[in-house]
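Quick question, first post here. What does this chain look like in 3D?
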Amino acid sequence: MKNSTQAHLDRLLARYPVLAGQKVNISGIFTAIADSYKNGGKLLVCGNGGSCADSDHIVGELMKCFIIRRPISYKLKEALSAYGEDGEALKAQLEGALPAISLCGHSALTTAFLNDTEPTMTFAQQIVGYGQAGDVLLTISTSGNSKNCVYAAETAKALGLTVLALTGSAESRLSELADITFFAPSSETYAVQEFHLPVYHCLCAMLENEFFG
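> Answer (accepted):
Ran it through. Tokens below.
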């Protein structure tokens, strides 16, 4: 980890001293995702309700510029040059991306699957389609026991993905399944979500800095 990447985590813990006990877990989650990216993997994210919105939020921060500019590769720039004015416009506007997919979208797929089969297995079905060994699944659940997230985690483990979890303070089925869990220091849903946001913002900033800083 770069020193400038570590600085993002240090600033998070300075702002939220109550999270000091989770420093190792936050760092571990970063390392797991970073290692996957370095090996050509991708991040899959899922959750319900507010955690569904968090899943989309995380993907939005990773797939485009978050804090710093992200130049596209020289190889891509050279290839785009073949398209004249269009290529120049693309080179000027495209940004480097960290591949991430929220399993909370894809309404045609999810509604078809929940109508035809089992609604709580829609995330797991997407893991079957998207997941490959070496990828990472990040599950977000304030209780840690959301059935659709648990099914996704079990399917991911069976396929050889690394499973990470953001939960509340209690041990849960997801914390049993996950390779690393961040435990927010609360059991109140709204408060857990209030801790999740600065943590995943920090993780996004760390990942961006590690690959583009």
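The radius of gyration is 18 Å.
The mean pLDDT is 97.
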